[in-house]
Design goal:
By secondary structure, the chain is α/β, with parallel strands linked by helices. About 35% of the residues lie in helices and about 15% in strands. It has helices at about 10-20, 30-35, 40-50, 60-75, 85-90, 90-95, 110-120, 210-220, 240-250, 270-275, 290-295, and strands at about 5, 50-55, 80-85, 105, 135, 145, 170-175, 180-185, 185-190, 205, 225-230, 255-260, 280-285. Strands 2-3-4-5-6 form a five-stranded mixed sheet, with helices on both faces. The protein is globular, with a radius of gyration of 20 Å.
Length: about 300
């Protein structure tokens, strides 16, 4: 049995952007949460008869991604298969050259994926060559890699993730009695340069505190009972994290939450207001107890 199950936040953002722009026939299949076998997944895909299938690709899941792509091409051979995620960021050309993969998107995918859907549905006449972050194969099998323009999405201007497309009761953690849980992102990016991280951009984009708390209230009203902030480090900007907590307290949100943390920029005052705002856990990465190894990892 799994110790936790978190919803696919990236896919839910992709779906919410599509729905906001009029593409309402969107479904999310969470094979892990539904405990689907490959046979059951094949039946689900056959039943949905998709035009386009987007998948998150991480290097350690590529075997499953390729097996899933093979199933999709078997039961929906006309469907375009599009990959995004960390594996594509690191290995875009290697990814697109894999069998059954039609297109890939580097970097942030929400709006490039929207533009891809618009292009494939005839609503964008200039084809794929001007869609940022795209990697694709043309009809002759030639590979094209468009320019990566890492325009950080302003999550304060984006629709909230489409949590309504999935059953909230599937998502839980053994670290809390307040199930079901969900995830939420208040900022994207990280200023640190730990050697083991694949990230290559060190700017951070923050959401407005009022927008974060608006989402927390909508989450609470949906019946979800706890939130985990999946920012790389929740309080990398103490002023903003404290503002979020002040807004939570002011609006009496009253939902427990946890966050990822580092030990070097915490303070007693910060911990005090975190607790008052509903923080129950901080998840701190302890990569090593050896100073030499920490220095080699560039942990600062």
């Amino acid at each position: 049995e799994s110790s936790s199950m978190q919803p696919p936040l990236g896919l839910m953002y992709l779906a919410s952007v599509l729905i906001e722009h009029g593409f309402n026939d969107v479904k999310i299949i969470d094979s892990q949460a539904d405990k689907l076998s490959y046979g059951e997944l094949e039946s689900r895909i056959l039943n949905e008869s998709p035009d386009i299938v987007g998948m998150t690709a991480m290097t350690f899941t590529m075997t499953d991604v390729m097996m899933t792509a093979r199933i999709i091409k078997k039961v929906a051979p006309e469907a375009d298969i599009v990959l995004g995620g960390p594996h594509v960021d690191i290995y875009p050309l290697e990814t697109i050259q894999q069998p059954d993969i039609d297109k890939a998107i580097k970097g942030e995918g929400e709006y490039p994926f929207l533009e891809l859907i618009r292009s494939l549905s005839g609503k964008r006449p200039d084809g794929l060559s001007n869609i940022r972050n795209m990697v694709w194969k043309d009809d002759k099998g030639q590979v094209w890699e468009n320019k990566l323009t890492e325009n950080w999405n302003d999550y304060s201007l984006m629709p909230f993730p489409a949590r309504h497309l999935l059953s909230v009761d599937k998502y839980f953690s053994i670290m809390t009695d307040n199930n079901p849980i969900t995830t939420l992102i208040t900022a994207k990016g990280c200023p640190y340069n730990c050697v083991f991280c694949y990230k290559y951009i060190n700017t951070v984009s923050y959401r407005a505190p009022t927008n974060v708390v608006d989402e927390m209230i909508s989450i609470r009203e949906s019946g979800i009972r706890e939130i985990f902030f999946v920012d790389d480090t929740f309080y990398v900007n103490p002023k903003i994290s404290m503002s979020i907590c002040s807004e939570i307290i002011r609006r009496e949100v009253n939902i427990p939450w946890g966050a990822r943390a580092r030990v070097n920029n915490l303070s007693d005052d910060m911990l005090s207001i975190f607790k008052k705002a509903g923080c129950r856990r901080l998840h701190i990465g302890v990569e090593s107890g050896n100073d030499r190894i920490l220095k080699n990892l560039n942990k600062k």
